[in-house]
Design a protein that fits this description.
This protein is α+β, with helices and mostly antiparallel strands and about 290 residues long. It is built from 9 helices and 16 strands. The strands form 6 sheets. Strands 10-3-2-14 form a 4-stranded mixed β-sheet, with no helix packed on it. It starts with a helix and ends with a strand. The relative contact order is 0.15.
Length: about 290
C-alpha cells in the first residue's frame, strides 16, 4: 500500500475528529455555565438570603407613584392673571442608584447650591432606607421647631442641577431626581386675596374661589406603578389638568375699590367695611372688597 495514501487517510480522520472535539468542549463549557446559573437561582430562591430578596421584590411591586395634575389658572375678566403656578421641584433620591461617590457629591453640590449643611444631607443619603422598604426618598431640611419639610428648588436651581445630570464630566449625581411640584402664586399680591382664597402646601384650596372651586381647579391625580425592571420603564402619563377659571372681577376696579375702602375705614375709625361693584344689566360682580 502506498505510504502517502495512508498518511493522507490519517490526516483526513484527524481533520474530521478536531471539530467534534471542539463541539464537545464548547458544549461542556455551556453546560457548566448553565448548571452554575441553575445553582444560583436555587440559592436566591431558597438560600439564607431568600427572605431579603423576597422583601425587595414585594416592596418594588407595591411601590406606587402619584402623578399630580397642574392646577387650573384663574384670570380676571380682561385676562389678567389672578392665580398661576410657578415651577418648583422636589429633590428625590432613587436609593439603589446611589454610589459611594454620588452620595458625597450630591451632598456637596446641594450644600453649595442651596446653602444647606453638608452633614445633614450626607446623613440622609447614607441611611439604610432599603432596610425600611423605601426605594425612593425625598430630601428634607429642618425648620423651626425641629420639624422636617421637603426641600423645593426653583427653576434656576433646577436647570443647574439638570445640567450636572446631563454632563458626563460633572460631579456624579447618580440617583438624584427632580420631581415637579408647582407652587401657587398670586401675581397681584394681596389684591383680591379675600376673593381668591389660598392653596396650602398639599395643594388643597381654602376659602374664596380656591376653596369653593377646588375640585374643578385641582384636576385629577393618577396613581401608577413604578417598575424597576428596564423593560417596564416608561414615561409617566400626564394627569388631567384642572379647569381654568375666568372671573367677572375687574382687577383695575378691584384695586380702586380696595384703596377707597381702606381710606374710608381709616377716616371713619371703623373696624371694617364692605364695597360691592356690580353691573346692573348683567348682575356680574366687578369688584368685591
Amino acid at each position: 500500500m502506498d505510504v502517502s495514501l495512508v498518511e493522507h487517510g490519517r490526516q483526513a480522520m484527524t481533520d474530521l475528529l478536531l471539530p467534534s472535539r471542539r463541539v464537545r468542549l464548547l458544549l461542556s463549557v455551556m453546560t457548566f455555565f448553565a448548571l452554575a446559573m441553575v445553582f444560583q437561582l436555587i440559592r436566591v430562591q431558597y438560600g439564607p438570603y431568600a427572605p431579603v430578596f423576597a422583601s425587595w421584590v414585594e416592596a418594588a411591586e407595591a411601590l406606587d407613584n402619584e402623578v399630580d395634575p397642574m392646577r387650573g389658572i384663574i384670570y380676571d375678566r380682561d385676562g389678567d392673571l389672578l392665580a398661576t403656578n410657578v415651577p418648583t421641584y422636589y429633590l428625590e433620591i432613587e436609593v439603589y442608584q446611589l454610589t459611594p461617590a454620588s452620595r458625597k457629591q450630591i451632598a456637596a453640590v446641594l450644600a453649595r447650591t442651596l446653602i444647606l449643611p453638608y452633614e445633614d444631607l450626607y446623613r440622609q443619603l447614607s441611611a439604610d432606607w432599603g432596610a425600611l422598604g423605601l426605594f425612593r426618598i425625598r430630601i428634607t431640611r429642618e425648620v423651626n421647631g425641629g420639624e422636617r419639610w421637603p426641600i423645593t428648588v426653583d427653576q434656576v436651581a433646577a436647570d443647574m442641577l439638570k445640567a450636572f445630570l446631563l454632563d458626563p464630566e460633572a460631579p456624579d449625581l447618580s440617583g438624584l431626581k427632580l420631581v415637579p411640584a408647582p407652587r401657587r402664586e398670586y401675581p397681584a399680591g394681596s389684591l383680591a386675596g379675600h376673593v381668591l382664597g389660598f392653596v396650602n402646601q398639599e395643594g388643597k384650596g381654602f376659602f374664596g374661589v380656591e376653596g369653593f372651586y377646588d375640585s374643578w381647579l385641582a384636576g385629577r391625580s393618577l396613581t401608577i406603578e413604578r417598575g424597576y425592571i428596564p423593560p417596564e420603564a416608561r414615561l409617566e402619563p400626564d394627569a388631567p389638568a384642572g379647569v381654568n377659571l375666568v372671573l367677572t372681577i375687574d382687577l383695575d376696579i378691584q384695586q380702586m375699590v380696595e384703596e377707597i375702602l381702606a381710606k374710608a375705614v381709616e377716616n371713619a375709625g371703623a373696624e371694617s367695611g364692605q364695597i360691592i361693584v356690580m353691573d346692573p344689566q348683567t348682575g356680574e360682580i366687578l369688584a368685591l372688597a
